[in-house]
Amino acid sequence: xxxxxxxxxxxxxxxxxxxxxxxxxxxxxxxxxxxxxxxxxxxxxxxxxxxxxxxxxxxxxxxxxxxxxxxxxxxxxxxxxxxxxxxxxxxxxxxxxxxxxxxxxxxxxxxxxxxxxxxxxxxxxxxxxxxxxxxxxxxxxxxxxxxxxxxxxxxxxxxxxxxxxxxxxxxxxxxxxxxxxxxxxxxxxxxxxxxxxxxxxxxxxxxxxxxxxxxxxxxxxxxxxxxxxxxxxxxxxxxxxxxxxxxxxxxxxxxxxxxxxxxxxxxxxxxxxxxxxxxxxxxxxxxxxxxxxxxxxxxxxxxxxxxxxxxxxxxx
Length: 316
Description:
The protein is mainly alpha-helical. The protein is 75% helix and 0% strand. The longest helix has 31 residues, at 262-292. The N and C termini lie far apart (46 Å).
């Protein structure tokens, strides 16, 4: 409930301060966000090329699928956009299996996990979360899992048992899944063609956070910009809401308490999230329409789910 109230308060605060927004910085932040997507999709393209060496992986296909997935994630919870990324890429590479495509998406997040974990350690070590223990974070989805570790481990155990019971099908799945990680077997290629783009993308994300802070009149120190990234990573860890709305606002109120007043932080957090949602949704739905040649959003979701359900199981 604290997360939900924080989001509602943030929207109200944003509405009250809309006239004071510095639109130039807001546009710059949105532009940096798009550059980040362009860089990340280039890294994903290189992962796909390694996974499917005999296929022609076009950058426009990888960029379109990646942006479409981000756009879907902006409006739907539970990372439904990841399914959309795989569905659209299968249209460009018909022989690509979902298990291998899943592996490529996992490979694409390795740098994110390392950087996000490092930033979280920095935030805890330097008191960015003053007086807050991990189970007490004001993010309902994250704190729920941390407050009930027994049930979280029990669920993980049930999933593991199901994998063991499925036997050969699971082994075949992991074999296909591993193809998506094959670029990791050539570390220099991975560093050059994936890590370099993703690190540059993180630079754009930090720069965008600084521009958002300036747009709402909050001092844009490197500490504040990095704090925004920590809140974003924690808020989206368990995607129970589209884009982590609610948990992010609650976290930012705690983490930026020393930078500005609560109302200013709420206005900033709502303005940043609403801007990102609009930009990502418009860009993503445009890419979706161009790749599918229609503008029916729910039809595209049904097509993606149907394609995955009808795809021949890779364990047969």
